[in-house]
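Q: Structure tokens for this one, please.
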Amino acid sequence: MDTSILQRLLTEATAIARRAGQAVREIAADVGEVLDKADGSPLTRADRASHEMIVSGLGRLVPAFPILSEEGDLDSFDAGSRRVYWCVDPLDGTKEFIRGLSDYTVNIALVDCGEPTLGVVDVPAAEVTYYAARGLGAFKVAPGARPVPIRPSRCEQPASAVVSRSHLSAETERFLERVGIASTVRRGSSVKICAVAEGSADIYPRFGPTCLWDTAAGAAVAREAGCAVVDLSGEALSYDPDAGLKHAGFLVVPAHLDMGRWL
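A: Here is the predicted structure, written as tokens:
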């Protein structure tokens, strides 16, 4: 995709994600009714409000691309014909949101031929946004500040890890012990991916299923920052929906590290 188009889409997607994040933040004070979806995950009016705002915003962009959203009509998304598509999680970390915690996010990614080439991760509670596009750099912007480039740790041996607050498995704990991790922080949502991308953690292992929309935006940010986002065999994580909407597990690490010795 032409760089000028990618830059424009990144600017527009960032603005959409931040508006959706503001809407979610305003609802956080009064979450309201919590419903259970078919898969057992929770659904709030913030999920729906964010979804509607994002779909409406992305739908007005040119060029137009189909939208795969966690809260959309997944059955109507024809995976085989979608070379380029938007991949959206309107509210990642709904469990944390319901509990009044701060690490929930709004995720928007543009996927091209199975690769997330643009990503925006908005952290509404902190009013912080991470964004990146292929060849254009990865950045973090905080309230009242200018965007700053981000990059991962230059460690030769990972010492700190960020792990899932809700899905910390015994397999993850064994992996951390095998690598020799000295410090572990438990968090929710795609902020874990961004923590590695900005160097505040050395590694993020996930041994358990996630959906494409959970990680696509974070993966775009992390890869552009200088990270590898790989499956549990060490291959680059694919976002081709024709291969299914779930990943079995993944690692986010600084790209210079050889993870083969631990996998």
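A few notes: Residues 15 and 77 are 25 Å apart (CA to CA). Helices lie at 3-27, 45-59, 94-98, 170-179, 191-197, 212-225.
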